[in-house]
Amino acid sequence: MPVDQLAPDILASEQAHLAESRKALQAMREHAQSLSSDAAGDWVSQQILQSLLDQRVAALADHPDTPLFFGRLDRNADDDLPRTIYVGRRHVHDGHSKPLVIDWRAPVSRAFYQASPGDPMGVHLRRRFGYHGGKLTAFEDEPLDTGADVGPSRILTEEIERPRTGPMRDIVATIQPDQDEIVRSDLGTTVCVQGAPGTGKTAVGLHRAAYLLFTHREKLARAGVMIVGPNKAFLSYISSVLPALGEVKVDQTTVADMLGTPGATEEPEVAALKGSARMVDVLERALWAHIVKPTEGVVYTQGVYRFRVADHEVREIVASLRGTTRYNPGRDALTQRIAHLVLVRMEQRGESPDDRVHDKVARSKEVKAVVESVWPKLTPQQVLFKLLSDPEFLAKAARSDLTAEEQQLLLWRKPYRGAKSAKWTAADAALLDELNDLMERTPSLGHLVVDEAQDLSEMQLRALGRRCRTGSATVLGDLAQGTTPWSVSSWETVLKHLGQASGEVTELTLGFRVPREVLDYAARLLPSIAPHLAAPRSLRPGAGSLSVRPGGSLTEAVTQALDKEGSIGVIVPDARVDEIAQELGAPVLGPDSTEDHRLLVVPASLVKGLEYDHVIVVEPADIVAAETRGLARLYVVLTRAVTSLTVLHDRPLPEQLAAG
Ligand SMILES: Nc1ncnc2c1ncn2[C@@H]1O[C@H](COP(=O)(O)OP(=O)(O)OP(=O)(O)O)[C@@H](O)[C@H]1O
């Protein structure tokens, strides 16, 4: 496709449109700044209005380095909009409300991403713009009414190959048609995306969040949108994308932050068992086993009178409540109903007690004592503590759902002294969350984006599912990159445990990050780790991007990479991180890292979801040997490179890689 830098007139007129749009944006901002919150009636409304105005002013800031628009459509359409529209990150209009730039999320912008010679969608020319810094330097024309396909866009390839420094960039200018389908799917639809490394799953998830917030602003501002990623380093890497799209009110979190940071670790087989949804019934029985059959009634004394509620009456209330409410509301309801019966007795004696008396009875020590003995106040930690430390209690709760060996596996080898001093693992955190929800309903958000979902256990998925129970989700992942002991093998299973069984599973198949030569090399591992998945495809051939060096020198590889532009990740077996960092005098990526460095030593276990222009992998055999799903880990490691991958090894390569 021609990048038409040789048409100076056109380029100059497009640059003039950019200048006009920038000026108009400046005017919109000045107007917003001139608005006053004084018009609001009271102090509270004034504060709310001021905060809205501040947000509006911030949203109208012009970032000189980011293109205000990146595309143009010349349309045949007969609607209220100009025939020529410019597509950009946000709406900009002139002083007469004429749109100069239209938000990429507006319905009319859809054609920019979706129109094709086969289906021009009323567009006869699509123009893409190339930028250098904030300067418009090139454009690329695609006539859509001639029926001829003009081939891949050079602006797209250049965008992908632009050297990386710092965090992930947005892809709003170059979203591809199949990605756009996912980005623009309805709020009510849960979408699950399987995609090979670098197919843009993370990018698509973030852009979908931005699209939904634009399209359903009010509803989602109330209900909330949350992005869930594997660790803080990953969140830091993606943290700039949504703000660059003008969306600052999205929470980004990890499962550990959401459910509680683990204070202990455990054997993979124990973690896998605790992660299984078979634990659900066990937990439910464990909780409800705390309710004791009432053997005594209540005697409430007021002055010289005693009002009695018989034991069988308490039994009846408990029986009617058990299993029909969550644990805590059930406990409250038991208190209220006992108090009610006391009040009935008072009325039978001719009194007319009011609400205050009702409250007093409900809070009396007599009623509290019976409720506590029958339906005790509990914390999730107390229940799980009992389950993991008391073999008899576990056997009672487990029934035939867990074998004797499995029960043995669950019990702590060295029990803690109490629920408060117990140290919980990542798997325990999900069990505690399940118990918490059995006791008290977990509030739901409007939309959840879950990245690297293949690594979540069934119990973690249930925990996330609760948080989008009345909303929807975007679930992203790659079954071949599953590295946890509980990694799932099908997306249908993921959706089921998430409580979104009707969600749509879709696939992204074209890789943008990894050059073909490197991707083909990594794909030699696929038959061993995910035989049912098709080999991934790559947009760019990347001839010469792969170098495998037996006995190769690390210092030499790093020096070569430093001679080129872009970021460098030296990915090493976790056990060798310190040694190699010292050798290179380079910083190490930690789970909580948020800083940018051009050269980083990266532990293999932390590199999921990240990418570097140049990747140097040290000793693949050790990376594989370090964990049960070591081959899948190696697949993740080998698919992080945008421009070049160098593999250094002294030990023989894993046989799947060697046999090429
Ligand atoms: N349409 C696109 N235009 C430009 N760049 C793109 C596009 N789609 C994806 N990319 C780029 O490709 C790279 C990989 O994207 P992303 O991290 O979203 O992939 P992923 O599928 O989540 O990968 P992984 O499975 O390895 O986590 C990123 O640099 C992203 O910006």
TrEMBL record:
InterPro entries: DNA_helicase_UvrD/REP (IPR000212), P-loop_NTPase (IPR027417), UvrD-like_ATP-bd (IPR014016)
Phosphoprotein among keywords: no
Residue numbers binding ATP: 195-202
Domain UvrD-like helicase ATP-binding: 174-515
Database matches in SUPFAM superfamilies: P-loop containing nucleoside triphosphate hydrolases
Any one GO BP annotation for this protein: recombinational repair
Tree of life domain: Bacteria
A single cellular component GO annotation: cytosol
Keywords: ATP-binding, Helicase, Hydrolase, Nucleotide-binding
GO molecular function, one term: ATP binding
Protein name: DNA helicase IV
Protein source organism: Nonomuraea soli
Source lineage: Bacteria, Bacillati, Actinomycetota, Actinomycetes, Streptosporangiales
